[in-house]
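hey
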């Protein structure tokens, strides 16, 4: 499958005359050269998106510099000064054990050991961008599955005749599979299944798979005591990130920024 190209400026791009906005933060201009240099740290699908990300990062940094200047803070290490400023201006409540237990109860599926599947398959191989070929292979797969559902003993012979996977030399066996061992799109469809021949072909980037689940060992629910520390750390990090985001958002709201419209989603408000 083809994916969208990612824009990443080259050295030539940085010298190229593509237009960069004139940005000011509370009346202080951001050097256009800084913006051109910052682009290399913000790859995106197009130049406009890269400029948006780079400009926003520089605006946030400029706001923090202005805050440090107002507080007359002596700066030896600018990055550390930024971090100290943020930490001194955010406030959030540490999660309680009740918060963690509630999260565990509402998300128990996240705290299970991965199932183990013993799987054999027939791969009807076809290129990701061969649309007509994929339609044809899916039709063939459906016909073969129909025969297997009536007589599963045909599986080994079909592996030899049809499978384009190296496992065709071992009866189509993929051995024992746990999560993370195969491509994601295959696993998403495979792991919810029960033992036996699956009555539909599974599509992946490699083609269509006819799967025979020989054995399935379900994952086990982990007890709260085994994951409480992990949940505690995760929720605290999430609260900390939200507190930082709120602080930076307020700085932006209290400032006059010209030349760039900031997009203050959680994922891109952070500087650097």
């Amino acid at each position: 499958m083809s994916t969208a190209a990612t824009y990443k400026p080259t050295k030539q791009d940085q010298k190229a005359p593509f237009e960069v906005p004139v940005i000011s933060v509370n009346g202080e201009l951001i050097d256009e050269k800084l913006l051109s240099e910052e682009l290399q740290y913000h790859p995106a699908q197009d130049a406009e998106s890269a400029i948006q990300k780079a400009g926003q990062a520089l605006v946030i940094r400029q706001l923090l510099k202005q805050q440090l200047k107002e507080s007359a803070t002596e700066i030896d290490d600018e990055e550390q000064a930024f971090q100290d400023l943020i930490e001194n201006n955010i406030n959030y409540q540490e999660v309680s054990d009740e918060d963690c237990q509630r999260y565990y109860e509402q998300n128990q599926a996240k705290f299970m050991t991965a199932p183990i599947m013993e799987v054999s398959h027939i791969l009807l191989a076809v290129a990701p961008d061969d649309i007509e070929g994929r339609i044809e292979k899916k039709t063939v797969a459906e016909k073969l599955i129909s025969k297997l559902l009536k007589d599963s003993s045909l599986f080994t012979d079909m592996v030899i005749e049809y499978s384009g996977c190296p496992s065709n030399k071992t009866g189509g066996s993929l051995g024992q599979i746990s999560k993370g061992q195969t491509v994601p799109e295959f696993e998403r469809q495979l792991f919810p299944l029960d033992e036996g021949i699956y009555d539909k072909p599974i599509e992946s980037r490699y083609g269509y798979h006819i799967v025979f689940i020989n054995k399935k060992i379900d994952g086990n629910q982990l007890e709260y005591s085994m994951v409480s520390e992990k949940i505690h750390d995760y929720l605290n990090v999430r609260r900390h990130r939200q507190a930082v985001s709120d602080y930076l958002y307020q700085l932006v709201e209290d400032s006059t920024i010209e030349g760039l419209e900031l997009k203050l989603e959680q994922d891109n408000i952070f500087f650097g």
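Residues 1-7, 11-17 have pLDDT under 50 and may be disordered. The two ends are 32 Å apart (CA to CA).
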